[in-house]
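Entry 14. Two folds queued back to back today. First construct below, sequence then structure tokens.
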Amino acid sequence: NYVETYARPFIKQKLIPENIILNKYWIMRHTISQPTEGVLGSIQFKVPVLMEKMLPISIAGDTIKASPFGRIALIFLRCNSEAALEELFQSTLTRSLYTIQ
């Protein structure tokens, strides 16, 4: 019960451990960019991802400078394990997570 669990500390009552459900997952923040200057068309992910949020910085048709000066979007991706997070991170380093058209 979210409301009860949230309100208890404000009325000086202890939390009930059974009401607390911990979801254990990892979040990776990544700035989408491209290695060379070019016009942004679209972003296509090569593998399925669990996207928590995407904050666009550029829109289709914008001329994007080469990384690190040009930025397309910030993404927040969720992983269910530390190993999956590491694999996802490595794919960003090798630029194999997505393609930019």
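Second construct, same run, same settings:
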Amino acid sequence: MSVCYRPGQERGHTQWNWLDSWHTFSFGDYHDPAHHHFGVLRVINEDWIAPSQGFETHGHRDMEIITLVLEGALAHKDSLGNGSTIQPGDVQRMSAGTGILHSEYNPSPAEPVHLLQVWIYPDQKGLVPSYEQRSFTEPPQGAGWQLLVSPDAREDSVLIHQDVLLSRACLAADAPLTYTLPPHRSAWLQVTDGVLLLEETTLQAGDGLGLLAADEPRVLVLQAQAPGAMLFLFELPPSQ
């Protein structure tokens, strides 16, 4: 199995007085030619934003941006007129397209917010900017995969303008979890909590693992090393 293992502690790191950010791929002042992107997956940033702090209004173009709050809350405003608070379990998708401005802010005066921000290349440039946010109940341990994002909004998932499926799962310690990766599809796994085993590779919070496309389907078998391991799995077009 061809893999790209990305230990959490080897990610790029930005530390400001209000922001603690870990970059799986090149981002901002952090540039790593060996980890610039994985196929259409361009950015996975794991951020901690201090109370009453955040990103001032800034712009994006031609990118699908997914925000997943893990702990706390994040206030959002954008040039389309959207204003919302993103909570754990919510999935926000912003299609920047021809151009969008937005800000992100931690509204709590006391608690930090912990989130993943994901950027994915769209399937075409020049899309009309758009926005979607949906709330999902966190899956109980051992409940299997929960589809969050898809290109056709199947199973009430959030729509994305790219051939990507994003799922999450919370593993029970006594029950392996499987995922069948179809032929000619790659995948990226991002662990956000706990410790789990994929074949002979141990993954813990912050670690990522990319799987290159193959000609045959592959069954991925994941085993939690303790209850409550949480991960996100991106099923992607073949990585280039």
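Quick look at the second one. The two ends are 16 Å apart (CA to CA). The CA atoms of residues 64 and 95 lie 5 Å apart.
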